[in-house]
Structure to design on (211 residues):
C-alpha cells in the first residue's frame, strides 16, 4: 500500500506538548495550569495532520478503505509513541486499561468496522495491555470533519457513557485523529464520573484548529 519512500515523507512530532495550551510537556501530560480546563490527563500524538500529506493519506486509506497493511504500520506508530511517553510503571505492571472511542451502532453497521477499536486491539497485543470496551456512543452524531469548532463541541456533548463503574483504574483511550478534543473530552468525562481516574489518550494525528 505504502512504499518505504512514501513512509519516509511522514513528519513525526518529536516533542510532545500539553494538549490544551500546546506548551512543551514531558510525557505529553496536561500542564498544571490547564488541568482545571480538561478531563484528560495526557494526549500522546504521533504526527501533525496539517501539511503532512503522507500521514493524511495513510490514515484516510485505513479509515475509509480499511487497508490491512495500514493496521500494522499505524499500530506500530502508536506503540512507539505510547512506549516513549506512558510511564514505565503503568506499562510494566499493566496498571492501565486500554480502550477506544466507539462508533454509534448505526455507523458501525454501515462501515462494518471501527478503526479506533482495530488500532486498540493491535496496541493491546503488542504492548501486552488489557483491553476493554469502556464506552458506548448513545447518540448518532454528525461527522466531525464537516463541522466548525463550536459545532463540533455541541455535536459531541453527552454523546458517550461508560459501560461500567470504575474502581479507580487509569484508562488509555485510542483514536485516529484529534482536533478540537471534543470527542476525547466527552469520552473522558463519563469515565471520570463513573469512577475511573486519570484518562490518557493516544492518537495518530492532531489537527490544528484556528477558527
Amino acid at each position: 500500500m505504502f512504499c518505504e519512500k512514501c513512509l519516509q515523507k511522514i513528519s513525526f512530532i518529536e516533542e510532545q506538548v500539553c494538549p490544551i495550551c500546546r506548551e512543551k510537556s514531558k510525557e505529553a501530560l496536561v500542564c498544571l495550569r490547564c488541568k482545571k480546563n480538561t478531563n484528560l490527563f495526557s494526549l500522546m500524538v504521533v504526527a501533525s495532520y496539517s501539511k503532512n500529506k503522507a500521514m493524511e493519506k495513510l490514515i484516510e486509506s485505513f479509515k475509509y478503505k480499511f487497508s490491512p497493511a495500514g493496521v500494522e504500520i499505524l499500530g506500530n506508530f502508536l506503540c512507539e509513541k505510547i512506549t516513549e511517553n506512558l510511564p514505565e510503571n503503568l506499562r510494566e505492571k499493566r496498571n492501565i486499561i486500554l480502550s477506544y472511542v466507539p462508533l454509534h451502532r448505526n455507523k458501525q453497521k454501515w462501515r462494518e468496522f471501527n478503526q479506533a477499536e482495530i488500532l486498540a486491539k493491535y496496541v493491546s497485543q503488542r504492548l501486552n495491555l488489557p483491553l476493554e470496551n469502556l464506552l458506548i456512543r448513545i447518540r448518532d452524531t454528525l461527522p466531525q470533519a464537516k463541522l466548525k469548532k463550536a459545532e463540533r463541541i455541541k455535536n459531541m456533548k453527552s454523546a458517550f457513557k461508560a459501560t461500567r463503574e470504575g474502581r479507580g483504574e487509569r484508562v488509555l483511550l485510542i483514536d485516529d485523529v484529534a482536533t478540537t478534543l471534543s470527542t476525547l473530552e466527552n469520552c473522558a468525562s463519563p469515565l471520570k464520573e463513573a469512577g475511573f481516574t486519570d484518562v490518557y489518550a493516544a492518537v495518530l494525528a492532531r489537527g490544528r484548529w484556528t477558527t
Observations:
- Strands lie at 42-48, 97-100, 135-137, 160-162, 171-178, 199-206.
